[in-house]
Amino acid sequence: MDDHGELEGHAATLRAFGEQTGASRVVLVLDRGRRESVMLDWSGGDLLDLVQGEQVRGLAAGAAEPRALPELRRLPPVDVDLPQGSVTGAIGTLPRLAGWMHALVAGFGGRSVVTAEWDTTDPGASMTLAARAGEPLLVALGDQHFELPGGAAP
């Protein structure tokens, strides 16, 4: 597959993940070995931002089929308490999101990183998860960052 076709497939996969999980934004920093890294940024719709070096251009997510993903679904928003750095929600929400994030990033290979952002019950606070294969999942609430206990990639 040529570079453009590969990137279109990645774009379709990010869009599918975002739409199926209810994420408001999904970003991939793609490790391409010795070649320059690229960033794909999905914030809804069919068009993603593709960043290569100093260049930013649109990339259609509907031009390719997404790769196979685990069964995904929208989960209820979590409650966050920023001063306490706590997240509460339905039982299993964070472990389920962690598993989905690790499954997503594993398909991109190398030291690629995926972040995804979800709305919470607090309109002023979103929750962002960051995953890289073989490393613990990171959770960001506002300016606070945490490693998810037991959230290491398989």
Question: β content, as a range?
Answer: 35-45%
Structural class: alpha+beta
**Total number of β-strand segments?**
10
Describe the global form. globular
Gyration radius from CA atoms, angstroms: 15 Å
The string of secondary-structure elements, in order, is: HEEEEEEHEEEE
Main sheet: which strands, in order across? 4-3-2-1-7-8-9-10
* Biggest sheet architecture: 8 strands, antiparallel
User: What is the CA-CA span between the terminal residues?
Assistant: 28 Å
Query: Mean pLDDT, rounded to whole units?
Result: 88
Query: Counting H and I runs of at least 4 residues, what is the number of helices?
Result: 2
Low-confidence stretches: none
Total domain count: 1
Percent of residues in helices comes to 10-25%
Briefly summarize what is shown.
This protein is α+β, with helices and mostly antiparallel strands and 154 residues long. It has helices at residues 3-21, 93-106, and strands at residues 25-30, 38-42, 47-52, 55-60, 79-81, 86-88, 113-119, 126-132, 136-141, 144-152.
